[in-house]
Design brief:
One of its GO terms (molecular function) is DNA binding. Keywords: DNA-binding, Transcription, Transcription regulation. It holds the Pfam family TetR_C_13. By secondary structure, this protein is an all-alpha fold. It folds into two domains: about 50 residues, Homeodomain-like (Arc Repressor Mutant, subunit A); about 130 residues, Tetracycline Repressor, domain 2 (Orthogonal Bundle). Helices cover about 75% and strands about 0% of the residues. It has ten helices and no strands. The longest helix has 28 residues. The N and C termini lie far apart (about 60 Å).
Length: about 190
Amino acid sequence: MRVKEFDPEKVTESAMDVFWRKGFAATSIQDLVEETGLSRSSLYSTFKNKEELYQKALHHYQIKTKANIELLSSPGSVKDLISQLLFQIIKDELTDSQHRGCLIANASLELAGQDEKIAKTVIYNFERLKKALESLIMRGQESGEISIHHSPLALALFFVNTIQGIRVLSKGCTEETRQEYLTNVAKVALNIL
C-alpha cells in the first residue's frame, strides 16, 4: 500500500481557500489541482469527489472560527464580549482584500437549499454560534447587565443574523463605504442590549 506523500490538512486548507474565493459551483477540479498541488488522481483517491472535499473544507473552516465561540465563553462584561466579536468580524472583513465573507454563509446562500449534507453543516455552524451567544446573554441577564426585555434565544438569533448580515453586506459594499456601513450596523445592534 502506497503512503500518502502530502498532508491532508494542508490540502484541505488550500481547497478551503479556493472554495471560499470562488464558491462551490465556480470551483473546477483543475482549480483544486492547481491550488493543492495534487494530481487529479490523488484528489479523487483521497477525497472521492469535489463534494466530499467541499464538506471537509467547511469542517476545516469551522475549526478556524472556533476562536469566536471561545471568545463568547470568556469571563468579563457580556456587552464587551459581544462588541469584541462584532468588531473582530468587521476587522476581518476590512482586511480581507478578496471580500470572501463567511464560508458558511456563502455555502448557505449557494447550496444549503439544494444539498442536505451542506444544509446540516450550515445549520450546525449557526447553531453553535447561537448557543454560545444564548449562554452569554443568559449570563448577562442573570447579572443584570442585559435587559430581560427580549429572551436570550431571540437576542442570540438576532446577533447570529447581524453577524451574517455584516459579512454579506461587506461583500456588496464599496471600499469607500465598507467600514462606515459595517460599523453602523454593529453600533445599532449593540444598542439592542
